[in-house]
Structure formats: structure tokens, C-alpha cells
Write a structure and sequence with these properties.
The protein is mainly alpha-helical. It is 69% helix and 0% strand. The chain contains eleven helices and no strands. Helix 2 crosses helix 11. The longest helix is centred in the middle third of the chain and has 32 residues, at 74-105.
Length: 262
């Protein structure tokens, strides 16, 4: 596929985003005790946080699909990303500001304890999209916006990473998703083995464990997911004839998810 030719939209990704977002919503409904799911649905909802990982993979894939071969200047890319993301982000902060205040000082929400002790630092981090770099502040103000803090880091790196991915041949790219997956697995696996927070177990009720929050929120810990997406994006546009493998691979992933969720 010619990298310089305008590429068609991929409507199926919209559906994939919808189901990933629904999975995340189910996770939060169960974690906050708004809904009490039982049986297989409970196991499925309990893994809903993986929907965020899928969004990070999709982000890398879509950015490569959109910009590979375009020779877009970094300044132009940053301007486009800022215009697309920050106005809506700022509006979300405006809407959630009252909940942030009452959560800190009236309801004493556990994951806002650090923010209540350092309110101006927390607000500064959130306004500059740096909250994910400071684990106790990751869920400050608009809790779900930590993922945008991570995305902002990916956006900064992308113009520098893309030329390096474009230079790779298909045979070189083939082994890279597995390598990045193992790197991500090493981060979470290292946490399980080393137990730096000395926890007996981990579930959605654990909110203020420092190293667990590093694994969950820190941009460097989530970078392998974005790199997997970038690699898959390059493979996708370099090998159009092999895209027929997408359906069986997707079905296999869904079957594996169903087995694990039981």
C-alpha cells in the first residue's frame, strides 16, 4: 500500500471503541457498587479496565494509519492534537470542578486524599495534563482523565517515533508487538512478584497503593501498549493482502476473553 495515498476510514474501529468503552463502563459500575453483577458478567465486568489498554493500542494504530508517510511537522501535529483534545478536556474539568471540591473536603473520597492535602499542586498537574506522572494525583479532579494525561505523553513522542517505525521492514515489524507485549507483561508481572506495596491481594478497592498506581497510571508503564498499536498500524498499511487475518484473530481474542472471564 502506498503510504502517500489517502487512506479510507475503518468504520469497524468505531464499533470496537464502543464495545471497549462499554466494557470500561461496566467495570466502573461494578467497582463503585452502582451495579451488582453476578456470574460470568461479574468476571467480564471485573476485567473492564483492559478496555483502556485497548484504547491505548488503538491510539497508536490510528495515529500511524493517519500520519505514516505524510511527513507532518511536529508543530503541526501538536497543534492538531491540542485543538482536538484540550477544549473538550477543559470543559470536562469545568463540569467536574464541584464534584472535585466536595469529594475532597465534604465526602473525603479515598483517592482524593492526596489532592486534599495538596490542592494547588493537584490542580496544576491536571491543568497541564501531568497528573498521571504523580501516582497519588492520577485521579485528581476528573478521575477518568488520567488516560488523557497518558495520551498527551504518547502524542509528544509520536512525531519522533514514527520515522523509526517507517524505516522497519515487515519482517522486522512482525516480532515487535510480541516484544512490546512482553515488556508490558514484565512491568505488571514484576509488581506481582516483588509486591512493593506489601498487599495481600489487589482489587478495585485498593486505591492508594503507590506502586500499584504507578503500574496502572504512569505513562511509561502504559507506553508498551501504544507501541503495540503503532507496530500493528505499520503492519496493516504495509501488508494489505494479509488483512483477511483480522477476523479470525479477533474471534480468537473474543474466545480467549470469554474463557478468562468465566
Amino acid at each position: 500500500m502506498d503510504l502517500t495515498v489517502a487512506r479510507p476510514r475503518i468504520p469497524v474501529l468505531t464499533s470496537l471503541r464502543f464495545f471497549a468503552a462499554l466494557h470500561v463502563v461496566l467495570f466502573h459500575l461494578q467497582a463503585t457498587k452502582i451495579a451488582f453483577l453476578t456470574g460470568p458478567m461479574s468476571g467480564f465486568a471485573g476485567m473492564g479496565y483492559t478496555g483502556v489498554s485497548l484504547f491505548f493500542v488503538l491510539s497508536g494504530f490510528i495515529l500511524v494509519y493517519t500520519y505514516a508517510g505524510r511527513h507532518t511537522a511536529a508543530k503541526q501535529f501538536y497543534r492538531a492534537r491540542f485543538a482536538r483534545i484540550y477544549p473538550a478536556y477543559a470543559f470536562s474539568l469545568l463540569l467536574t470542578a464541584p464534584f472535585f471540591y466536595f469529594g475532597m473536603y465534604m465526602f473525603k473520597v479515598p483517592f482524593l486524599v492526596w489532592s486534599a492535602a495538596h490542592p494547588f499542586v493537584a490542580m496544576g498537574l491536571v491543568l497541564t495534563l501531568l497528573q498521571a506522572w504523580v501516582p497519588p494525583a492520577a485521579m485528581a479532579w476528573n478521575a477518568v482523565a488520567w488516560s488523557l494525561s497518558v495520551e498527551a505523553f504518547f502524542y509528544i513522542l509520536f512525531p519522533f517515533l514514527l520515522p523509526r517505525f517507517e524505516k522497519r521492514s515487515s519482517s522486522q515489524l512482525l516480532w515487535m508487538p510480541g516484544a512490546f507485549w512482553l515488556l508490558g507483561l514484565a512491568i505488571s508481572g514484576g509488581y506481582v512478584l516483588l509486591r512493593p506495596d506489601h498487599l495481600a491481594g489487589v482489587d478495585s478497592n485498593v486505591l492508594n497503593a503507590t506502586w500499584l498506581n504507578v503500574v496502572k497510571f504512569h505513562p511509561l508503564a502504559r507506553l508498551p501498549e501504544f507501541l503495540i498499536g503503532m507496530t500493528c498500524g505499520m503492519l496493516f498499511i504495509h501488508n494489505p493482502g494479509k488483512q483477511r487475518l483480522a477476523t479470525p484473530l479477533t474471534l480468537g481474542a473474543l474466545i480467549a476473553l470469554a474463557i478468562v472471564a468465566r
